[in-house]
Design brief:
This protein has about 60 residues and is α+β, with helices and mostly antiparallel strands. It has a domain of about 45 residues. It has two helices and two strands, in the order E-H-E-H. The C terminus is likely disordered. The protein has a two-stranded parallel ribbon.
Length: about 60
Amino acid sequence: MTITDLVKVDGFITRSDKVPLYRQERERRLAGHASASTLGCRRRLSWTEAARGDSGGGGALSV
């Protein structure tokens, strides 16, 4: 499998100020390959909430 086999890349970050860094790193790692891409930004990811017992209103995150 190579980078060109990727069809979609999903990214999840917890700090919106890191969006430029995420985009830069995604571009570096994909070496110009254009795939579908989704970026989710949330203060805490659901598995963190579940581990702490927070209800957080988010539910489980499928990985």
